[in-house]
């Protein structure tokens, strides 16, 4: 079923009449900005020298736009097309702005390509680490500070704790499925620590083992602080 479309009045011709109150100021601001924009486009496209001076009904200070400068354009107008020398001022021609803009665009494109290459190298590095070994085998960033390294160590210790707990759980399930603890006299506390031993053998940071350890008496876990 087609949804009913909302009918609009479309673009209509605005009646040219004087506005009052806040509408007058809003319209003045919008139209002034549009006028200056069109004047700027005329300067860039046609290399024209333009001066626009606008006075508001309420403000005594005029709004001006000029290229290369309002004073220069007025002096040329008053001199019947002849420019007066102004040694104290230095104007930058539109051509120079266009050249600088083109160079900035080129530099931006170069930086975009460089960022894309860096991202591609990072993806390849991650893929290569996944093929060669575990993620903790990757070299540490030399620019990492002390706080970052401490946070990194705490994160690894948390991973170690979770992995050890998971290994303990899986090994106990396997043991319980094979033999009954009542027949062999094996208690749960006798097996705690196997997962921690497994993780300590495989998980390392830099050149030293992570200091997080677990005690295995009566099935209780105790976490020690990591060391660098």
UniProtKB/TrEMBL annotation:
> Where in the numbering of this chain does the MADS-box domain appear?
9-60
A Pfam family annotated for this chain is SRF-TF
Stretches of the chain forming a coiled coil according to its record? 94-121
The organism's place on the tree of life at top rank:
Eukaryota
Q: Could you tell me which InterPro entries the record lists for this protein?
A: TF_MADSbox, TF_MADSbox_sf
Major place of residence: nucleus
Question: Can you name one GO molecular function term for this protein?
Answer: protein dimerization activity
Q: What do the Gene Ontology cellular component annotations say?
A: nucleus
User: Which PROSITE patterns does this chain map to?
Assistant: MADS_BOX_2
**Which keywords does this chain's UniProt record carry?**
Coiled coil, DNA-binding, Nucleus, Transcription, Transcription regulation
Where does it localize? Nucleus
Name the UniProt record assigns to this protein: MADS-box domain-containing protein
């Amino acid at each position: 079923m087609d949804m009913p479309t909302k009918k609009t009045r479309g673009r209509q011709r605005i009646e040219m009449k004087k506005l009052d109150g806040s509408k007058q100021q809003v319209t003045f601001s919008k139209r002034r900005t549009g006028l200056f924009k069109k004047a700027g486009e005329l300067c860039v496209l046609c290399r024209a020298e333009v001066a626009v001076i606008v006075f508001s009904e309420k403000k005594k200070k005029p709004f001006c736009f000029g290229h290369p400068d309002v004073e220069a354009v007025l002096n040329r107008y008053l001199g019947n097309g002849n420019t007066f020398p102004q040694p104290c001022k230095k104007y930058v021609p539109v051509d120079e702005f266009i050249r600088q803009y083109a160079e900035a665009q080129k530099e931006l494109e170069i930086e975009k390509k460089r960022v894309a290459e860096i991202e591609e190298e990072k993806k390849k590095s991650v893929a290569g680490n996944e093929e060669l070994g575990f993620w903790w085998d990757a070299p540490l960033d030399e620019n990492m500070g002390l706080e970052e390294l401490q946070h990194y160590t705490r994160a690894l210790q948390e991973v170690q704790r979770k992995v050890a707990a998971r290994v303990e759980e899986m090994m106990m399930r396997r043991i319980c499925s094979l033999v009954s603890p009542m027949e062999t006299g094996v208690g749960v506390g006798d097996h705690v620590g196997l997962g921690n031993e497994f993780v300590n053998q495989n998980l390392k940071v830099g050149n030293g083992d992570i200091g997080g350890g677990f005690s295995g008496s009566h099935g209780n876990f105790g976490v020690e602080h990591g060391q660098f």
